[in-house]
Amino acid sequence: MPSTLVAHQVRASYDDQPVLDGVSVDLLAGGVTVLVGPNGSGKSTLLRTLARLHTPDAGTITVDGVDAAHLRGRDLARRLAFLPQSSPIPAGLTVRELVGHGRYAHRGAVGRLRDADRDAVDWALHVTGTSAFAGRHVDGLSGGERQRVWIAMVLAQQTGVLLLDEPTTYLDLRYQVEILGLARSLADDHGITVGLVLHDLNQAAAYADRIVVLAGGSVLATGDPGTVLTSDTIEAAFGLPVHVVAHPLTGHPTCLPYARATAAAS
Q: What is the chain's mean pLDDT, rounded?
């Protein structure tokens, strides 16, 4: 059965400045949920709070029905994996060695990789398409290759929930499509519950089963792309007029921003 991750009435702040105000989110089990919203709306804070990297001021977060606050770090890491927006480029590590670090929550007291750990690493390399360069050093890879390796590392945790914070940042269009296609296949082919933060509304529409629109630290709308991505909702969130049309090939909602005339033509 696919894993569940639910936040209920979560409030969070940084330096006494409120960021999230009573946010309730239910990631679609075995599907792809995308968080969207303007800068400062609380998307990344919510994702970090879901991963228990930021302590909420109030509210509850449950993983498979268990209060995350009651789980030990290793126990949580066996249920939920999180990849931040950017990670330092490790020097001197091969791809296989880095992916092996994803097994830290499963290793025994000695800390050595066992057969089950090596099998998990091989699987993570395979599903991310990184097996071919498993022996190369991470610092010699392209940006897109490196991002797939980082995803392989968190997949090696073999959790039921995967959270990715802006995984397409700094990538060209080809690698963006590859990463988002990977996220889609992890849900479709492996039953992993995937939560993403994205800025591109059209990419969110193309790859998400469920979209959560955040604005001002609150949930403005949640549901499937066709229900959520409306002109009214997008303008309310971003303060920008948008014309929404159906994609001619896929039927997904496509957002076309436009500027209103500010003065009558002379």
A: 92
